[in-house]
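Journal club prep — side note

Before the paper discussion, L.F. wants everyone to see what a predicted structure for a comparable chain looks like in token form. Sequence:
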Amino acid sequence: MESLSQQKPYVPEPSTGDTPRRNRTARYVLLGFLAFFVLAVVVSGVFVFNLANSFDTKAQKIDQAFPAESLRPTKPTTGAGANTTNILVLGSDSRGATLNTAEQGVASDQRSDTMMLVHIPADHKNVYAMSIMRDTWVTIPGHGDAKINAAMAFGGVPLVVQTLEGMFDTRIDHVMIVDFEGFKSITDAVGGVQVNNPATFQSSFLKGHTFERGVHSLTGEEALAFVRERYAFSDGDYQRVKNQQLFLKAVLAKVLTPSTLANPVTVSNLVGKFSPFVSVDKSLNAGAIAGLALELKDIRSSNIKTFTLPNLGTGTSADGQSIVINDAKTVKEIAEAMKDDQLASYLDVHGLVH
């Protein structure tokens, strides 16, 4: 077991030549979340299936999303957890050859710097999106202890799934990967998104641009800079994750309204905008999407609950890396809550939902 220097102040890692590439993934995951829920709340019937079929046709398929069946936890067929759904949403650096390699289950230079594990309870009344810090120090099968965002580089999408399924001893039903170009499109397609920025900061990505404290209506470019920023904050990635969740809620609040959802043309245009920038596992086809859409047709922005997987603070690994220390006890508790379909109660008791 590697020694750790516990509870050191969080110091963001120095910027390197690949900073833009590494930080792009910090917001791609938001679009994947949107892509799923825009579909999941549209009116029922033929329109839903046609919309899902359009998404299915335009979105790319992940050739190899899951590890070998023998390496995976078993999905319950009876009991409370049998009707829950878990969806892993990841960001991607590009839709180029390296991502294709990662999707085929081969090591590549891709890193999933930001990830969300989306949990849908059996009653389908709320949806829970758990952000996992990119520097969380975990055991990656076959590679020992490392930051969780290295799993993609070590073994592609299947190894990311295997790592998370091993952490939570919980089956992941679907995987979605998103490219940032779609993120910009969906932001501009809804006419900008209004956020209440908690603290003034100078953008590292929009030259000369300052995000003042208070309410802002963001364009696609501004939103991109808002959710990818971490170098301007003393706690780095912690505030970046909070801003991602803040922005996600703002977009959903604008999209998940009766005026938007009741307009087939508007919804079709939104789906058409982001579908080409999304990759999904092969089982997340038109039929599966339409089925989930009908089950979640009453979901609105107030039903989307976000939280960050708790940790034990920051530290340093034996080889000198700045890391986020995994809280194994809490991970186990959350895993049990998901399997027992009691995540809502657990989060309420511990006050984790933002």
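L.F.'s comment for the group: Residues 19-40 form the longest helix (22 residues). Keep this in mind when we get to the figures.
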